[in-house]
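Narrative of activities, Objective 1.

The group set out to show that a structural description can be obtained from nothing but a protein's sequence at a throughput compatible with the screening campaign. Below is one input-output pair from the validation batch, recorded exactly as produced.
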Amino acid sequence: MTFWSDPKVNPYRKYRFKLSLDGDYFWYANTVTLPSFDVSSGEYNIGNFKYQIPGITTWNDVEIGMVDVQGTTDKTVDKFLKGMDWNAAQTTKGLKKALGKKLTIELLAATGSIGKTYTLVNSFVKSVNYGDLDYSSDDFVTVSITLGYDYATK
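Output recorded for this entry:
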């Protein structure tokens, strides 16, 4: 029996998610990549055997796509940048304050309840792309924000 014919099973859908930064929800976010990571490995030869040893975990960037609704995206970028004192970030004491933003991605179940939550710890803006314009298209202007972060929790 396959999972889609079982009425008790409701898989997560790509369009059921909520995105928030320190408790403020962004209803105009239309895409977000989920956290992912890579683990480096070292290969070692001992005798006639080859062993692979796991190394350092590297968390990949998260990209958020938002429909630009008359300045709301500018306010969102400002929320990410607010309180980031880059001079204070040069010291250990100021680093936590500068990188203290917590982005939360909530996957919703079919009932609307929160099924799974990812939290990006110490997220910061790496780049912002305000989109492009085109006379031959009637699509929404979408702003892309790329975030770096230390790690994610589930």
